[in-house]
Amino acid sequence: MTIPSNYQELPADLPIPVDDGATRHLIGMRLPDLALQATNGKTINLGEIKKKLVIYCYPMTGQPNVPLPEGWDQIPGARGCTPQSCSFRDHYQELGDLGAEVIGLSVQTTQYQKEMADRLHLPFPVVSDVQYAFQKALNLPTFEAAGMTLLKRVTLIANQGVIEAVHYPIFPSDSDAPWVVQYLKTHA
């Protein structure tokens, strides 16, 4: 296992994920009525949020001085969770001005996510789908790494609790927030 020197920079030679069709069923689906624990100490039911909602789902963030799983950089789309989160942080005001609420989602524990959210100064909550309830309800794509089942990187844009747009596959990861901004501007 290698420890990356900077989680916010992406290596130049990452494999590019391809569209495997694993999200084609999502547009028009209702967000599930599930309460998930968030990094802000609250329980958030994504299905109850009626305004424009951006949910960016990501595999897992690395932690300082902790090696990434063996072969992580060879898994298409795995690397880049920290740059993706930082991009949403940096575009947060603009997304809010466009009427969208932002929430991150992964299958890590809330405690694991809270360390990342605090370290990166995220102004929005990240929710834990540690029981895979959200993933199963929407049949979100996953992959296996180091004995863990992780979410593939996918971003959902919902309005009134219904998914209206899906960004998948996402590459590079820090291009996700600008994609969402552009989508919201052209679909106001």
Automatic annotation (TrEMBL):
One of its GO terms (biological process) is cellular response to oxidative stress. Keywords: Antioxidant, Disulfide bond, Oxidoreductase, Peroxidase, Redox-active center. Residues 25-188 form the Thioredoxin domain. It holds the Pfam family Redoxin. GO terms for molecular function: thioredoxin peroxidase activity. The keyword Cytoplasm does not apply. It comes from the Bacteria. PROSITE patterns: THIOREDOXIN_2. Transmembrane segments: none annotated. GO terms for cellular component: cytoplasm. InterPro entries: Peroxiredoxin_BCP/PrxQ (IPR050924), Redoxin (IPR013740), Thioredoxin-like_sf (IPR036249), Thioredoxin_domain (IPR013766). This is Peroxiredoxin. It comes from Polynucleobacter sp. UK-FUSCHL-C3. The lineage of its organism: Bacteria, Pseudomonadati, Pseudomonadota, Betaproteobacteria, Burkholderiales.
